[in-house]
Amino acid sequence: MVLLTASRLAGALLSLVLLCSCKEPIDDVITKPPTPPVTAAPANWAARADSAQNALRQGFFTAGQYYAKNNAGDAGFNYWWQAHGLDVLMDGYKRTSSSDYLTQAQQLQVGAKAKNGNTYLNEFYDDMEWQALACLRAFQLTGDPTYKATAKLLWEDIKTGWNEQQGGGIAWKKTQRDYKNTPANAPAAILAARLYLLDKNPDDLAWAEKIYQWQKAKLVDPATGLVWDGINRTGDGQIDKNWRFTYCQGVYIGAGHALYQATKKPEYLADATRTASFVLGDADMAPGGILKNENAGDGGLFKGILVRYLALLATEPDVAAGTRTNYINFLKFNGESAWKRGARRPPGLFNTNWTSQPQGAVESSTQMSGVMLLEVLADLQARKLL
Predict the structure, then answer these.
(1) Residue ranges per domain, the chain?
(2) Quick check: bond before 187 cis, omega within 30?
(3) How far is the C-alpha of 117 from the C-alpha of 235, rounded, in Å?
(4) If you classify domain 44-382 with CATH, what class do you get?
(5) How far apart are CA 60 and CA 70, in angstroms?
(6) pLDDT digits (tens, 9 = 90+) for 111-142
(7) 303 Cβ partners below 8 Å, 6+ apart?
């Protein structure tokens, strides 16, 4: 028999306890909390819009108080680009309430009128329509009656473009009255509908519906909602079905939406959403989900025009929630690409292709489209829709 001293007995008992305890699950080990995943801060679209607006002002606005053709010394003047220049100034003013935008807008109206022969009237009906639309919006945002007077002056002249060649429609220009196209008709329908919403003059609504019905019957593919460009451009009565521009889709979406707001007739909203859905799903219009490159010159403005009217449709309360989400996601996807891959920063200059940076001179038309894109995203973010 082995006799254990008290100390040996205590040691044996301690060993037994330790041996047993090592077989129990360990539930009291102190561990470091898991590191939370890193999440990127949400994009500040208002700050991005500020950068793009500043680049437009500093690089393109001339001492003559109009937007020059490019930021590399070409001071060429294009009347309808100035109208979109006024519209993006109104975007900035609406977002910030800064009087700087109002001052520049007033300067632009003086400079554009002077460069256009000291008149707002023009050879091209579509150019006048853009000026009228921008002025009407400026009136609604500022209350300045001179803007409304200019819009009304232009509207009276625009209506003289209607004739029965090609079954109706407003001519593209005053010296080619037998050529009718989407750029001269869909914006006119938007203008007439907005004038009706403002003044409730039934004649304006009648004009809006007459122009729209001609547009839909002649220049919209009934199978898809694709909007064609024009008819009888070369005098052969043919439709330019191969001219597939984002511009044409945008203004038709805008016309349908404006007439829906004026009448609440569901067919107008259905037309607008159908064409919008076509754009989102068409590999030519939006390859890889990014609106296509339509080059510089007038084409530089085309995507911005579509973006403006698609965004308005996205904020229409009667658009289905899922459809609205699709539009907003599409706009955001384009905005992220344009800002991260298609812009040179600083100072926030855009390329005609929203998937690559500009390498040389940038034209003001192209820059305006980029500004429009960022401004609509800033507006959607302010509405808490992003």
Answers:
(1) 44-382
(2) no
(3) 30
(4) mainly alpha
(5) 6
(6) 999 999 999 999 999 999 999 999 999 999 99
(7) 246, 291, 292, 294, 354, 369, 373
